[in-house]
Design goal:
Helix content: over 70%
Number of strands: 2
Order of helices and strands: HEEHHHHHHHH
Oligomer: single chain
Length: 180
């Protein structure tokens, strides 16, 4: 209980001379915990259920991504591996951002796969927003987002106008989420 409360309160922020608030950790996971605590009394078992729900969404997204690439049989197998992967069992029962990060980053990938197929600006924008949310969960995801924007430029290089439009829309979504 106390670990949950400590992660959710602003005492986890470091104050430096001349800087009002400098996050010691990226803010989305502590915000997730704080939002959860608004609706449920602080209980480790309730929080484990919430993280397991996020992991369940991740399993569904793994299925959707794999089905688009390799078909239903491979998707069922990939989703089963995701659901019963020992690392997930360990991190779903501790205060780790892994479950939320995996979910957000995979939803972003799925949105971008659909956006690439349908060539829809809104889906590229939403993919960028979700990549931004993943970055706010784990800062190292920003490098992935830069790679994705570059990959979009490369994959669409035969039509530079669309390449710039779709990559720019993704970057716009990323910065909408990351801007204060």
């Amino acid at each position: 209980k106390e670990k949950i409360k400590k992660l959710a309160v602003p005492k986890n922020f470091v104050v430096l001379p001349g800087v009002k608030w400098l996050a010691a950790r990226v803010p989305l996971y502590p915000l997730f915990i704080a939002a959860f605590l608004k609706f449920v009394s602080p209980s480790a078992s309730a929080f484990i259920v919430a993280q397991a729900a996020v992991s369940t969404i991740t399993v569904g997204v793994v299925y959707a991504i794999t089905a688009r690439i390799a078909g239903r049989g491979a998707a069922i197998l990939a989703a089963a591996f995701c659901a019963f992967y020992p690392y997930s069992f360990v991190h779903d029962t501790t205060l780790q951002e892994s479950a939320l990060y995996s979910c957000l980053s995979l939803i972003s990938v799925w949105l971008l796969m659909v956006a690439f197929d349908k060539r829809k600006n809104l889906l590229f924008l939403l993919g960028g927003v979700l990549a931004g949310a993943a970055t706010l969960t784990r800062a190292s995801h920003f490098l992935h987002a830069v790679f994705i924007a570059s990959l979009l430029l490369f994959l669409l290089r035969k039509d530079w106008k669309k390449a710039l439009l779709f990559s720019g829309t993704f970057v716009l979504g990323l910065f909408i989420c990351l801007s204060p």
